[in-house]
Specification:
The chain is an alpha/beta fold. Helix content is 45%, strand content 12%. 36% of the residues are buried. The structure holds adenosine monophosphate. The site of adenosine monophosphate (AMP) has 16 residues, from helix 3 and helix 4.
């Protein structure tokens, strides 16, 4: 699946790059944060939401993956360290992530709206995001938290295969490509992401439980959290998200027009 509205150049390359966009602005830009353990399908849900709501998919994982093939001497020491942390399955440290976000804060003001996927991942990151959005006078519509039992997460992650060319994802049993190891969309050779290998998966789930789960409390306490089950097909989960969002979107429309 690919995001249809934009090449996300500003997000992937930083503030000075301009995006090429192909659709008009949506009448009501939607601004969301998606939370959930690795493997729960956040990326797929982000793509589906972006296509439906015309928001832009802002994934921090995509930013780090996009610089992987840059020559090391073009990367700042902080970025080199971030890359090393990412490929071993660890979280990238807050300071580096916040620097990366600061360089891309223009994306929060985009009239397409946004779906943040993979950021924030710690309470500190969430506090910084709130501060930035307050300064920009931008309000989040909702924080969606996807939920699924741990065994199902491990199964989903270690069977995932990704196309490095177009970013489409497959699963060896639940969503196999038509031809083994070949991308249905672009014919690229499918790979297992380094951070989807079993050793890295365990570290990522542990990091999630320790650092990211408290985020749910952060957003639950002020009433912004919408919990959605991540079980079932991507389309079924997507419909659940749209149902959960309906009241928020109605309030946002009323505030805009009233
Ligand atoms: P993802 O595609 O969101 O699963 O991200 C892949 C990897 O990028 C993670 O396992 C982390 O190493 C790193 N990463 C992405 N976003 C963040 C973040 N907000 N904080 C810390 N590390 C991150």
């Amino acid at each position: 699946v690919s995001t249809a509205i934009s090449d996300r150049a500003t997000w992937l390359k930083g503030q000075t790059a301009g995006c090429s966009t192909v659709l008009p602005f949506p009448p009501q830009p939607c601004r969301l944060v998606l939370l959930g353990a690795p493997g729960i399908g956040k990326g797929t849900q982000a793509e589906l939401l972006c296509r439906r709501l015309r928001s832009c998919h802002l994934s921090t994982g995509d930013v780090f993956r996009a610089i992987r093939y840059d020559p090391p001497d073009m990367l700042s020491p902080a970025m080199q360290q971030a890359l090393q942390q990412m490929t071993s399955g660890q979280l990238v440290d807050d300071q580096t992530v916040l620097d990366v976000i600061r360089e891309r804060s223009r994306c929060f003001e985009c009239q397409y709206g946004f779906v943040l996927d993979g950021f924030p991942r710690t309470v500190l990151q969430a506090e910084q995001l709130d501060q930035t959005l307050r300064q920009l006078r931008i309000k989040l519509d909702a924080v969606i938290s996807f939920e699924l039992p741990m065994e199902m997460l491990i199964e989903r992650l270690s069977g995932r295969r990704t196309c490095p060319q177009c970013k489409a994802t497959f699963h060896v049993t639940s969503r196999p490509p038509r031809k083994q190891d070949v991308c249905d969309s672009c014919g690229g050779k499918l790979i297992q992401r380094e951070d989807d290998r079993p050793e890295a998966v365990r570290v990522r789930l542990e990091a999630y439980t320790q650092s990211t789960a408290p985020l749910e409390n952060y957003y639950r306490e002020d009433g912004r959290l919408l919990a959605v089950s991540g079980d079932g097909s991507p389309e079924a989960v997507h419909e659940r998200v749209l149902d959960a969002l309906r009241p928020q979107r109605a309030v946002a429309t009323a505030q805009r027009t009233g």
